[in-house]
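Deliverable D2.4 — example input (structure tokens):
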């Protein structure tokens, strides 16, 4: 019957120890750095600011309200934004 196939040991993904609430430094970093990103989406914020997904979505809503970023694509699961720049507004 041949040797039984050995299952490879499942790799354990490092637990992403992301923040659940904003602390002051992270919050300031959000408003300082995000306007320089060309592309803003929840997954990018999670990755760069080490926050959790729901926090990233809330942050994006807040940034949009303040006009720091603007929507490119609004999809149920993944909302994609870009920084609001003067040049683009004139081009449109």
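Example output (designed residues):
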């Amino acid at each position: 019957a041949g040797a039984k196939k050995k299952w490879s040991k499942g790799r354990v993904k490092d637990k992403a120890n992301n923040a659940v609430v904003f602390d002051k430094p992270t919050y300031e970093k959000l408003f300082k750095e995000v306007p320089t990103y060309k592309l803003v989406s929840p997954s990018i914020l999670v990755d760069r600011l080490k926050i959790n997904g729901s926090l990233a979505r809330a942050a994006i809503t807040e940034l949009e309200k303040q006009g720091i970023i603007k929507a490119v694509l609004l999809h149920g699961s993944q909302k994609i934004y870009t920084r609001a720049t003067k040049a683009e507004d004139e081009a449109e």
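The beta strands are 69-74, 79-83.
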